[in-house]
Amino acid sequence: MVTASYAPDFERCRLLCETVDRHVTGMSHHYLLVERNDVALFRQLETKSRTVVDERDLLPSWLHAVNDPASLFRRRIWLSWKTMPLRGWHVQQLRRIAIAAHAAEDILVYCDSDVVFLKPFDCAAFRSDGRLRLFRRDNALPGTGDHETWSRNAGAVLGIEYPAVSPHDYISTLIAWSRQDVQAMCAQIERLHGRNWVEVVGSSRKFSECLIYGRFVDEVLGGASHFHAAEEFCRVHWTGSAMSDDEFRRFVAGMSPHQVAIGMQSFIGTDVDRIRRLTQAE
């Protein structure tokens, strides 16, 4: 399992780790991917089956994290001569790709740090008849926001000329990728462009690691060794306002039978102590 996080989400990540340990089986290791300034904080969460990985061990040395003067030095920004200036959410995506060259496991399960498991979950659910589950909503790419640009840029870095934009949506949390295919994807990008894959992907600030991987598997590999599934294992509260106790309970009650976890986007502001209290009561 792979989780990219940062200091403001530490308590959410702690709660995720507690519920992973309580409910998740079929997983050999949990990697927490963080920026160098956050390594010491997240070391508190390490166990014999959970490791904190410093992004400096994953990403090129020419990509530097610095305090951003535009935010009065409250936020970080990643700078280099080879990419656009990148925010934390950009670099979290790069870490999730880069871990494939660091991990030993064949299958990587990606789970955001604001997820909480409420039910037992066996990671064997990602395998069927020797094939790996690829999350894909057919013909469901949103027509608003940045999704079309993300898909177009994914095609460009992969050398896919047609279609320029895929109609399918691959974005979710609690999804699985093949480590071997992620490495092949990075090699494909470098072969096409003659540059490090981080440089190619980071040349735009509008990219989605899920769309890059999904389009690579489907349109470059032809879907080999994968099967598609549109059911989400995690019910996510993506947008809106912080929930009251009653709203939270209704949200949990609305989980589909196959859903085992909930995600409360941290920027919405639902208090983590409330989430802990209410989920422990479930």
State the distance separating the first and last CA atoms: 24 Å
Strand composition percent: 15-25%
Q: Kindly state the percentage of residues in helix.
A: 25-40%
Q: Give the neighbour order of strands across the main sheet.
A: 1-3-4
Main sheet specs: 3 strands, parallel
CATH class: Alpha Beta
- Rg result: 18 Å
**Which consecutive residue ranges, at least 5 long each, have pLDDT under 50?**
none
Total of DSSP H or I helical runs spanning 4+ residues: 9
CATH superfamily: Spore Coat Polysaccharide Biosynthesis Protein SpsA, Chain A
SSE-based structural type: alpha/beta
Pfam families: DUF6492
Protein name: Nucleotide-diphospho-sugar transferase domain-containing protein
Organism: Mesorhizobium alhagi CCNWXJ12-2
